[in-house]
């Protein structure tokens, strides 16, 4: 099991869905600037974010950038 940590550089909305069963792990109205949420990750996740430039992701201590600036979705294996 891995831990995904999402941190808002600036306020943004984020939704995280576990692909294996469609379970919504996070459906944030808005993450405030500086706010972080940690999620236990088992398998692939689908992440939708309102403003990619405002979000930083970390999996088990390794940082990942969001590959788009505005609204979009990505898959995290």
Overview of the molecule:
The structure is a single chain. With 77 residues, the protein is an all-beta fold. 0% of the residues lie in helices and 60% in strands. The chain has strands at residues 2-8, 12-18, 24-31, 36-41, 45-49, 55-59, 62-64, 72-76. The strands form 2 sheets. Strands 4-1-6-7 form a 4-stranded antiparallel beta sheet, with no helix packed on it. Strands 3-2-5-8 form a 4-stranded antiparallel beta sheet, with no helix packed on it. A hairpin with a 2-residue loop joins β6 (55-59) and β7 (62-64). The model has no long low-confidence stretch (mean pLDDT 94).
N-to-C span: 12 Å
Tell me the quaternary state: single chain
Shape: globular
Please, what is the average pLDDT? Answer: 94
Question: What percentage of the residues does DSSP assign to strands (E)?
Answer: over 45%
The radius of gyration is: 11 Å
Instruction: Name the poorly predicted regions.
Output: none
Helix vs. strand class: mainly beta
Number of helices: 0
How many beta-strand runs? 8
Helical percentage = under 10%
The largest sheet is: 4 strands, antiparallel
Sheet with most strands: strand arrangement:
4-1-6-7
Secondary-structure element string: EEEEEEEE
Q: What tags apply to this protein structure?
A:
globular, single chain, four-stranded antiparallel beta sheet, mainly beta, 77 residues
Short description:
The protein is mainly beta and 77 residues long.
What is the strand and helix layout of this fold?
Elements: E1 2-8, E2 12-18, E3 24-31, E4 36-41, E5 45-49, E6 55-59, E7 62-64, E8 72-76
Antiparallel strand pairs: 1-4, 1-6, 2-3, 2-5, 5-8, 6-7
């Amino acid at each position: 099991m891995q831990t995904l940590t999402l941190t808002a550089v600036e306020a943004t909305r984020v939704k995280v869905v576990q692909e294996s069963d469609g379970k919504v792990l996070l459906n944030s109205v808005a993450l405030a600037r500086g706010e972080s949420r940690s999620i236990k990750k088992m398998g692939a996740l689908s992440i939708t974010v309102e403003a990619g430039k405002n979000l930083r992701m970390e999996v088990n201590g390794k940082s990942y950038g969001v590959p788009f600036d505005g609204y979009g979705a990505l898959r995290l294996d």
